[in-house]
From TrEMBL:
The keyword Hydrolase applies. NCBIfam families: allantoicase. Pathway: Nitrogen metabolism; (S)-allantoin degradation; (S)-ureidoglycolate from allantoate (aminidohydrolase route): step 1/1. This is Probable allantoicase. It comes from Kribbella amoyensis. GO terms for biological process: allantoin catabolic process; purine nucleobase metabolic process. Keywords: Hydrolase, Purine metabolism. Residues 18-166, 185-322 form the Allantoicase domain. One of its GO terms (molecular function) is allantoicase activity.
Length: 384
């Protein structure tokens, strides 16, 4: 089995504002532990009023038929590429089997609404091992907003990771947005060095909380410099840039630059002649949030951050606007990835179609590159 899916971001992580919105039982250990960043830990001597304290989700021993489940709202909806059901430290109390289902709903549904939703199987009931990372690759092509982890019949799970491709709702991508945010679909596609921490931290929401919550490379002992290339969420015109060295005090870069490139295809090399300056090489200060206006009013699909000669960066923000054609293309792809019932809901509520017409149009997908979706209907959905 391929495990490449673990390179995709964890869409369920608390770092991306994921939430465990319900669990039918959590007597021994709280459901919220499932999506905590970082590995589970074990405290040998810690016991509470309900027994051994576990860093995970643990249900009571069942004495009746049935099974236990927990529902996670993905912090960023997307196409799920694989899940990890991590039973670390659960050795005599892990569930022998588990399954994963998904649903796609508008807005922020309540627990009752989620219980009544239509769920589709991503991972059928499958055997899992205790004190282990159980990996399941997923090939379902749809975009999901919630996933449900079921365990059979009961037991404990330390962490639940839902790795996938972020697919944001394009109705919220109008105006100026952070084109380099992972929650908007951006991704790191190349990096010279990630010795201490992953460059993906650069694209996380919110402010960094510690030096560990950023990208830090090793100390360079040659004449080169370190760099990161980011595929932006979509083609857009960059307006403002933020280079944040917060918490990097004695190990911030001395200087940095940011370049943009407008092009499709593979990852561009650093000497590609199409690169242009967004922020020319400039002096940086430690533990400082630096703000810059873009030096170039041009569209970009990639940016490359160069730090000189090395050092840590907490966050990279690239604020800009999607071109009209880019936003329309994002809406078409989003509609293609929605499960059929969710697509029908959007076409009726936002597009103004009768339900029967929305069903017929949904059955004619894909919309991308076909002209099946009328231009006036697309305009109503985009509603810029």
């Amino acid at each position: 089995m391929s495990i490449d899916f673990t390179r995709w971001p964890d869409l369920a992580s608390r770092d991306l504002a994921g939430s465990v919105v319900l669990a039918n039982d959590e007597l021994f250990a709280e459901r919220e532990n499932l999506i905590k960043p970082g590995p589970a830990v074990f405290w040998t001597e810690d016991y509470g009023p309900k027994g051994k304290v576990y860093d995970g989700w643990e249900t009571r021993r069942r004495r009746e038929p049935g099974h236990d489940h927990a529902v996670v709202r993905l912090g960023v909806p997307g196409v799920v590429r694989g899940v990890v059901i991590d039973t670390s430290w659960f050795k005599g109390n892990y569930p022998p089997a588990a399954s994963v289902e998904a649903t796609s709903l508008e807005g922020a549904p309540s627990p009752d609404e989620l219980e009544r939703a239509r769920w589709e199987t991503l991972v059928p009931e499958s055997a899992i091992s205790g004190d282990a990372e159980n990996l399941f690759e997923i090939t379902d092509p749809h975009r999901w907003t919630h996933v449900r982890l079921s365990i059979y019949p009961d037991g404990g799970v330390a962490r639940f990771r839902v790795h996938g491709e972020p697919v944001p709702d394009p109705r919220f991508l109008d105006g100026t947005v952070d084109l380099a945010a992972v929650e908007n679909g951006a991704a790191v596609v190349a990096c010279s060095n990630e010795f201490y921490s992953s460059p993906t931290r650069l694209l996380q929401p919110g402010r960094a909380q510690t030096m560990a919550d950023g990208w830090e490379n090793a100390r360079r002992r040659d004449d080169g410099n370190d760099h990161v290339t980011v595929r932006l969420a979509a083609r857009g015109r960059v307006r403002r840039v933020e280079l944040d060295t917060s918490y990097f005090v004695g190990n911030a870069p001395g200087w940095a630059s940011l370049r943009g490139l407008d092009g499709a295809g593979g990852v561009p090399s650093g000497d590609d002649p199409r690169w242009f300056d967004l922020v020319p090489r400039t002096r940086l200060q430690p533990d400082t949030r630096h703000l810059f206006r873009s030096a170039t009013a041009a569209d970009a699909t990639f940016v490359r951050l160069d730090v000189y000669p090395d050092g840590g960066m907490a966050r990279l923000r690239v604020h800009g606007e999607l071109a009209d054609a880019t936003l329309r293309a994002s809406v078409l792809r989003w509609l293609d990835l929605l499960p059929a019932d969710h697509a029908v809901q959007v076409l009726t509520a936002d597009g103004g179609l009768a339900e029967a017409d929305a069903v017929r149009l949904t059955e004619a997908r894909p919309f991308t590159g076909t002209g099946v979706l009328p231009a006036e209907l697309l305009a109503r959905i985009v509603a810029r």
